[in-house]
């Protein structure tokens, strides 16, 4: 399944977002059915391999050393611990294992262990994803050669609103890393966060940037801010659930072949809201109890929700069948 090349304007995307909700949902679900099994959800498991003490100043993040959070910095965990967590995730049905480190960028001394993690998780038959901050060319090549399938690097918000959230690296820095990863042949996972004080147009413009990466990212995580104590956004206003659903539907229409992932914030969503998000075209979730530092619904709660909605978790075998049919 390849992502479709497209050029979206800010205005066209906003008109879509503003459609009557029923029309928007119908269109999103129709696009979704042309590209995916509507009753199948991809599940990923995320492990923090190095927590806290990050040099960046992302206003939403409790791992930033600049945000005065109480979270203490840890060292990178050993490869064996990562592989044992991955094995557990695979046995629990996850098809992709995401490893996240709170870094501005990895150091050379970290690379051997990172490569061993990718090779080891790949060896367990899972897809691999990493989120490590900015990467230079040689780091991208080493990770690709080790078998890294996805690299996560979120653009977070619109280019206009970005400086309100992060000042230690620019929007252009983010796009550079995404281009480097894409050109090396690693699949791109990139999305953003709603609820940081941005306007609806910023949310839509974030999607315009992603859709116009050409190809669009293979995976688009949409997070709902979970305000963290001691961060500048600790008192941020909650996102309106219908606005959130609108953005998911708009993302589905603009990036028809991408996996659209419900990420952080799912623990705050009702079953009804999650069902609406799936109807709007979300087809990927994180499973497991924690998302780096924010809460995630417990797995048995997810199993109950899947059963209620008649959803199935995508399996590696199922994915291979879909690919073979392309
Ligand atoms: S979001 Fe990532 S880069 Fe930003 S402060 Fe947190 S860990 Fe660091």
Summary tags:
TIM Barrel, binds iron/sulfur cluster, alpha/beta
Structure description:
With 326 residues, this protein is α/β, with parallel strands linked by helices. The strands form two sheets. Strands 1, 2, 3, 4, 5, 6, 7, 8, 9 and 12 form a ten-stranded parallel sheet that branches. The chain has a two-stranded antiparallel sheet with strand order 10-11. It has twelve helices and twelve strands. The protein starts with 9 loop residues before the first helix and ends with a helix. The protein has a single domain (10-324), classed as Alpha-Beta Barrel (TIM Barrel), CATH 3.20.20. Bound molecules: iron/sulfur cluster. Its EC number is 2.8.1.6. InterPro entries: Aldolase_TIM, BATS_dom, Biotin_synth/BioAB, Biotin_synthase, Elp3/MiaA/NifB-like_rSAM, rSAM, rSAM_sf. GO terms for molecular function: biotin synthase activity. Homodimer.
The CATH homologous superfamily is called Aldolase class I
The major sheet is characterized as:
10 strands, parallel
Low-confidence stretches: 320-326
N-to-C series of helices and strands: HHEHEHEHEHHEEHEHEHEEEHEH
Structural class: alpha/beta
What small molecules accompany the polymer chains?
iron/sulfur cluster
Helical percentage = 40-55%
- Determine the mean pLDDT: 90
Assess the beta-strand content as a share of residues.
15-25%
Q: How far apart lie the N and C ends?
A: 6 Å
Strand tally, please?
A: 12
If classified by CATH, what would the architecture be? Answer: Alpha-Beta Barrel
Shape: globular
């Amino acid at each position: 399944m390849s992502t479709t090349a497209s050029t979206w304007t800010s205005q066209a995307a906003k008109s879509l977002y503003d459609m009557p909700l029923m029309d928007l949902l119908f269109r999103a679900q129709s696009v979704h059915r042309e590209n995916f099994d509507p009753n199948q959800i991809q599940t990923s498991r995320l492990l923090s391999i190095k927590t806290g003490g990050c040099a960046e100043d992302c206003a939403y993040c409790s791992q930033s050393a600049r945000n005065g959070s109480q979270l203490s910095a840890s060292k990178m965990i050993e490869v064996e611990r990562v592989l044992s967590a991955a094995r557990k995730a695979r046995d629990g049905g996850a098809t992709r294992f995401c490893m996240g480190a709170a870094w501005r960028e990895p150091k050379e001394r970290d690379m051997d262990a990172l490569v061993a993690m990718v090779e080891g998780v790949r060896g367990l038959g899972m897809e691999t994803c990493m989120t490590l901050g900015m990467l230079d060319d040689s780091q991208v090549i080493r990770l690709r050669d080790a078998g890294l399938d996805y690299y996560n690097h979120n653009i977070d918000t619109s280019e206009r609103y970005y400086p309100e959230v992060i000042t230690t690296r620019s929007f252009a820095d983010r796009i550079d890393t995404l281009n480097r990863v894409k050109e090396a042949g690693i699949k791109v996972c990139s999305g953003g966060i709603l609820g940081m004080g941005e306007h609806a147009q910023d949310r839509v413009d974030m999607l315009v940037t992603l859709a116009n990466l050409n190809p669009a990212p293979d995976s688009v995580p949409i997070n709902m801010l979970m305000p963290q104590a001691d961060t500048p956004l600790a008192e941020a206003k909650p996102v309106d659930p219908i606005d959130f659903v609108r953005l998911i539907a708009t993302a589905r229409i603009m990036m028809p072949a991408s996996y659209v992932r419900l990420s952080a914030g799912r623990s705050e969503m009702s079953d009804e809201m999650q069902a609406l998000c799936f109807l709007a075209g979300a087809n990927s979730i994180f499973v497991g109890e924690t998302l780096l530092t924010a809460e995630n619904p417990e797995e048995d709660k997810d199993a109950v929700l899947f059963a209620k909605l008649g959803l199935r978790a995508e399996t590696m075998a199922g994915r291979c069948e879909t690919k073979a049919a392309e």
